[in-house]
Amino acid sequence: MELLLEPSHWALLAVIGLIAGFIDAVVGGGGLLSIPALLTLGIAPHTVLGTNKLAASFGSSMAAWTYYRQHLFKPSFWYMAFIATFIGAVLGSFLVYLVDTQWLEKVLPLLIIGIAIYSLVSPNAISDVNCQAPSSKPPAKQQWLQGLALGTYDGFAGPGIGAFWTVTSGSLYKLPLLHSCGLARAMTFTSNLTALTIFGWLGQVEWQIGLWMGLCMMLGSFIGARCAIKFGMPFIRPLFILIVLMIAANLAWSAWL
After folding, report:
1. Residue 127: CB partners within 8 Å, gap ≥ 6?
2. Residues 6+ away with beta carbon under 8 Å from 43
3. pLDDT per residue as tens, the chain (257 positions)
4. How many CA atoms lie within 13 A of 158 on its CB side?
5. What's the rounded Cα separation, in Å, for the pair 73 and 48?
6. Fewer CB within 10 Å: N-end or C-end of the chain?
7. Any idea what the Cα angle at residue 63 is, between residues 43 and 12, rounded to 5°?
8. DSSP for the chain?
């Protein structure tokens, strides 16, 4: 880890953290940049996951707070999803040590490519058509199913989790796009923080590196959330599809090629 003492490495982590935070705040998928960057520094894979969870917790907390301040997310409506996501993230963080991940590496690109195709061919997949902000708590059963499934996935792996939250929230609850983004950021913060606690307990976090990248991701997330709120659909939808396709291509290359 002596290479980390070089200023160029810290500068690289800062730039990548800033960009990853921006992407995460708008559509999710910042791990597409941050995880490979940490791997190139020679950090062990499980420690990379834990360190990335630390950095991502900073970014997702800032993004969630920004959406909340703009009244695009109401926590009291979603406490069942919070609990379910927490439980799922605990399960996923332990499962990553117990389950052979090779099958997941093969299947993930197909799932994420499916999201990209669905977003392209369905005009209402990422839109505000026939959507409105919730006036009451959404059904508890749907919150539990969604939170458990996506929380477990994020604790276990995580690529594309923001896209999964955004698309499923719009489909399940007919939320406007910005409200789906706000919910996605709040729940990914929940699963990030939960997984971080598990990885930290297991000694799989490089704290100094994660804190540095996390502060940079926090700044990027603030800028990204403000841009999403200001420019809305014309800004978010093409960026969403682009990032989802990049995540799918990256995973497919790693798993199949």
Report:
1. 170, 177, 233, 237
2. 1, 51, 206, 209
3. 444 557 788 898 999 999 999 988 887 778 778 888 888 887 887 788 889 999 999 999 999 999 999 998 999 999 999 999 999 999 988 887 776 656 656 666 676 677 667 666 665 555 555 567 777 888 899 999 999 999 998 887 777 788 788 888 888 888 888 898 999 999 999 999 998 998 899 898 999 999 999 999 999 999 999 998 988 777 777 887 777 777 777 767 776 76
4. 34
5. 30
6. C
7. 35
8. -GGGGSHHHHHHHHHHHHHHHHHHHHTS-THHHHHHHHHHTT--HHHHHHHHHHHHHHHHHHHHHHHHHTTS--GGG-HHHHHHHHHHHHHHHHHHHHS-THHHHHHHHHHHHHHHHHHHH-TTTTS-TT----SSPPPHHHHHHHHHHHHHHHHHT-TTHHHHHHHHHHHHH---HHHHHHHHHHHHHHHHHHHHHHHHHTT---HHHHHHHHHHHHHHHHHHHHHHHHH-HHHHHHHHHHHHHHHHHHHHHHHH-
Question: What would the two tokens of residue 6 be?
Answer: 């070089």
Place of tokens 């800004």: 235
